[in-house]
Specification:
10 strands, 6-stranded mixed sheet, 3 domains, D-Maltodextrin-Binding Protein, domain 2, two-stranded antiparallel sheet, 39% helix
Length: 312
């Protein structure tokens, strides 16, 4: 049994496609397919069901995948112990992030990392969904909660807050709500409920029991733009909404707190490029942590003592 064949099998199993694995590894896809076939012949069992739209592990493939990952961990650990891990920052690292954090924070700051490491290729995928690290949809994922299952390594990146926002134009026309109950008389913007991939994203239930938005958008960016247009009131990320002077934080005593976590698969922990990106993310957030949680307590205290008005 050839270790290189096992390594190629792991790449196919994680990406779900021979073509995707070949691109990730920089190897011709026909070679990848041929080497996986050679591995199956050596093991005298079928590991993959190959279809036109991808590959699926057989029961034997699932069992071998788990064993192969253990082998990979042992080899990486042994190599690291003898100093044989390549520490040059090269290769491709794919970073998956929630769309708000990815677009409004990371996209304008990650260029500094590329400037530091000329041989590093970074892929940022900011979309409103979760990522499968075991299937290698991303090498690093920014998650909104710490994963409870799987062989994953997670660390808290930062807490962040969210609050109720409306545009000045909307408040000039509809007037500011004075209480949570009064929100029922206003246009409300929310998420598409059946597309929420984590209950941690169901913010509206923490504000009022029945949000019942008539305008639902499955993207933090889309909700922000809708509020800016004057379409109604929504729960927005404070660090995003503060960037727009036309947005007003209403009922500031109502605040929601969440966290971002960096998460990656334990088999990737020895990758120099991955460790470099993780360290840089922490560096970025540590330098600007105040934008994520800084003004919330002051806003809440102001809301407790001052009446609401469109000029806040």
């Amino acid at each position: 049994m050839n270790w290189d064949d096992i390594r190629l099998f792991l790449a196919v199993a994680r990406t779900g496609q021979i073509l995707a694995a070949s691109r990730r590894l920089g190897i011709n896809h026909a070679t990848v397919g041929r080497r996986v076939t050679a591995l199956e012949e050596a093991l005298r069992t079928r590991l993959l069901v190959r279809r036109t739209n991808g590959c699926e592990l057989t029961a034997e493939g699932e069992a071998f995948f788990r064993a192969a990952e253990r082998m990979e961990i042992e080899m990486l650990t042994a190599a690291a112990g003898t100093g044989q891990i390549n520490t040059e920052i090269t290769g491709t690292v794919r970073l998956g992030a929630p769309d708000g954090f990815g677009v409004f924070f990371l996209s304008s700051r990650l260029g500094k990392l590329i400037a530091r490491h000329s041989a590093l290729k970074l892929q940022l995928v900011p979309v409103p969904r979760s990522f499968s690290l075991s299937q290698r949809e991303a090498d690093i994922a920014i998650t909104i909660e710490r994963p409870a299952q799987g062989r994953l390594i997670s660390s808290k990146l930062t807490d962040y807050t969210l609050g109720l926002y409306a545009s000045r134009a909307y408040l000039d026309d509809a007037g500011p709500p004075q209480t949570i109950e009064a929100l029922k008389d206003h246009a409300r913007i929310g998420y598409v409920e059946d597309l929420i991939f984590s209950r941690s994203l169901d913010f509206t239930g923490e504000i009022m029991r029945h949000w019942d938005a008539r305008f639902e958008i499955s993207s933090a960016i889309g909700q922000t733009e809708a509020v800016r247009s004057g379409a109604g009131i929504a729960i927005l990320h404070d660090y995003v909404a503060r960037q727009y002077p036309e947005l007003v934080r209403i009922l500031p005593a109502s605040s929601i707190r969440r966290s971002y976590w960096t998460t990656y698969h334990e088999t990737a922990r020895h990758m120099a490029g991955l460790r470099t990106v993780v360290a840089f993310l922490k560096e970025l957030v540590d330098a600007e942590r105040g934008i994520f949680v800084g003004d919330t307590e002051d806003e809440q205290k102001a809301g407790e003592t001052a009446p609401q008005s469109a000029s806040l």
